[in-house]
Design brief:
The protein contains 17 helices and 20 strands. The protein is of the alpha/beta class.
């Protein structure tokens, strides 16, 4: 059925691997647009979404942009991974072409309030927790943004006042800010150096994160983070702080507590490992309270929200346990700070698998946490040699094993009953993998292979769960 884009031309630059490009291309086609999709990735790596779009009538140019005229279109939809100064965008701007993103098109059309969550670490967990709390409180809410998929195709189905809960990356915010397409309620979980290879400097990265406050009426902010406090200085909206001395925090027993120190939710009722994840729950509760305009309603919804809650995949996710050793997938960790938080959540006595592609980050948080919590560190990828040198100087037992499969084999030899083997790389996967999901899949495959080798026969490896 033809819609607002009937008879108009659109180019989708960057199909990507997480569903946003596919979703916006499908939506544009459903609206009657003539759609061309182009991506530098090979046709083989994008075979499934490419085949689907071709069947729907899209034209595709993959493996590069040969022959694509970025000035001959009514709309250029840019994948957030494409740098803002990329030549196709410069050509389109010079020709006066409208440039947008999947998430920008969604926010423009969303019929209710928008909650946007960003941060260097914890934003996916906080986003999914906010969505869970709102749903448990009886509010219509939809989950989207960087957490995967596209909500554009749901626009005709959602109630008029439905709440969009969106994970927003710095890349997304960099493209959304100039158009003012920003959330009503903003959440910043933390800000540590990240994506410096894209943004060029920590100052530019901070500016991209601060953009989320641009039109927000309420902001939920981590008071424990000095950079968040710096970024929010001078902002004129209603701030809800969490963490120590905030509206909500986590005490030493792991309970969720309010500003007076009164227990909102007992530790035993919170199925989330580590203080960082419980602070994410505090942020989610305050975000839900802000958009509902009712703090009590949000807090009362917590038990129901957590009753069946599971962390998003690849975030301290146990792949299986055998011979007393737990194998834990934290492949989403792409910063030293996130690995440090995961090590703290597991506690001392683990075999850590770390390393990957450097984004210009300081490894100190990973080095400090590994010194404190890891018995052995197995190193992979581009950053393996540098980490080996730095850890060895600190007296940490470390080995360079190069690849994730080799790390799994070596970890199986080294790990002792009662320990965990933790894949928490602290770096991007792009030196050896397409994305962190592929890295996790390889880890899982080889963990289960080791389980079968260690205990042949179904009865003897029944605890190697999936």
């Amino acid at each position: 059925m033809a819609g607002e884009w009937a008879g108009r031309r659109a180019i989708v630059l960057g199909l990507g691997h997480f569903g946003g490009g596919l979703g916006v291309a499908r939506w544009l086609l459903s609206q009657g647009a003539s759609v061309l999709v182009t991506d530098r990735a090979s046709p083989e790596s994008l075979a499934a979404p490419a085949a689907e779009l071709a069947a729907l009538g899209a034209r595709l140019v993959l493996g590069g942009h040969a022959g694509v005229d970025f000035t001959a279109t009514d709309l250029l939809v840019v994948n957030p991974a494409v740098p803002a100064d990329a030549p196709p965008l410069a050509a389109a701007r010079a020709a006066g072409v409208r440039i947008s993103t999947e998430i920008g098109l969604l926010i423009e059309r969303w019929p209710g309030p928008v909650v946007g969550i960003t941060g260097s670490n914890g934003k996916s967990t906080t986003t999914s927790l906010t969505h869970a709390v709102l749903r448990a409180a009886g509010a219509p809410a939809e989950l989207g943004g960087n957490i995967g998929g596209s909500l554009l195709e749901r626009l005709d189905e959602v109630p008029p006042r439905s709440i969009a809960v969106l994970e927003l990356s710095s890349f997304m915010l960099e493209l959304l800010a100039p158009a003012g397409l920003l959330p009503d309620v903003a959440v910043i979980t933390n800000i540590t150096p990240n994506h410096l290879d894209r943004h060029g400097s920590f100052e530019a990265y901070k500016a991209a994160k601060r953009a989320i406050l641009g039109r927000a009426r309420h902001a939920v902010l981590c008071g424990d983070d000095a950079v968040v406090r710096e970024v929010a200085a001078g902002w004129g909206g209603h701030a809800l702080w969490y963490g120590r001395r905030g509206e909500m925090s986590v005490n030493t027993a792991g309970d969720l507590v309010d500003r007076r120190g009164w227990i909102v939710l007992d530790s035993a009722q919170i199925p989330l490992p580590g203080r960082a994840n419980r602070l994410n729950l505090a942020a989610a509760t305050l975000a839900a309270a802000a958009v509902l305009g009712d703090e009590v309603r949000a807090m009362r919804a917590l038990p129901a929200a957590l009753a069946h809650y599971e962390l998003p995949p690849h975030r301290l996710q146990t792949v299986g346990t055998w011979q007393g050793v737990a194998w834990v997938d934290d492949s989403v960790s792409t910063t030293p700070e996130s690995t440090a938080a995961s090590l703290a959540a597991l506690g001392a006595g683990c075999v850590l698998i770390a390393g990957g592609h450097d984004k210009g980050l300081d490894p100190e948080p990973l080095l400090t946490a590994a010194t404190r919590h890891a018995r052995v560190v197995l190193l992979v990828g581009e950053q393996g040699p540098r980490l080996l040198r730095d850890l060895t100087r600190r007296g940490v037992t470390a080995e360079l094993v190069q690849t994730v499969p080799a790390a799994v084999v070596r970890a199986a030899q080294l790990a002792q009953a009662g320990e965990s083997v933790l894949l928490s790389p602290g770096y991007s996967s792009h030196d050896q993998f397409t994305n962190y999901e592929q890295r996790a899949a390889v880890f899982r495959e080889h963990v289960l292979l080791q389980a079968r080798r260690a205990a042949p026969g179904p009865a003897r490896h029944a605890d190697a769960t999936g």
